[in-house]
# Entry
Amino acid sequence: MEQIKNLLFSRFRTVFVVASLTSLSLFLLMVRLKLTHSYFFLFLVWNLFLAAIPFLITFHLSGKNKVRKYRLLMWFALWLLFLPNAPYIITDFIHLQHLKSNILWLDAILIGVYAFSGLLFYLISVQDMEELLQRHYHPKKVKYLLWMLPFLVGFGIYLGRFLRWNSWDVIQRPQNLLQDLVGILTYPMKHQGAWLVTLFFGFGLAIGYQIFKRIGFFKLM
# Structure
């Protein structure tokens, strides 16, 4: 308990920012529910919860004085499994084209706040994981991994948005998931959309992460 308390105080700015954005997200959703009496966007709460999981993993690990190498690898695998859920919320803008609403501007703002919250969870979590990995591995290996990471996340976003796979399907339906993965990798020309989405989000996330590092954003966190 004392360790958690110290961690919260040492990273007060981070906790304050993510808590404020989460509260704002929930408030905007309640406003829309009040205005429309529609529960359509409730899925955003679940998506934001999934987006927070990788952040909570690295936030927990960063508070430990020492993490054994094999345990870090186990946490990393779990973290990577859920990481695409964080920027995935950006794709929820696709729902705007199907809505017939007189408050479309509010819907756009609502999704935008949730998407920004998810992206923030992603950026902070990746920065925390980078620092954790650098304690155990050579900086060059960590650097190469970080350049591959956004494209793995982009591929995960494609699997989630277009093939409707979830993170827990790795356990629930591993054979079906593996079949889709093999099909995409074996016949790349038949799955050009998968590579376009992967590259689009991969480059976007990689550039965004580097921009945030250069402007010193993470030092404020």
Residues 2-220 form one domain. The chain has one domain: 2-220.
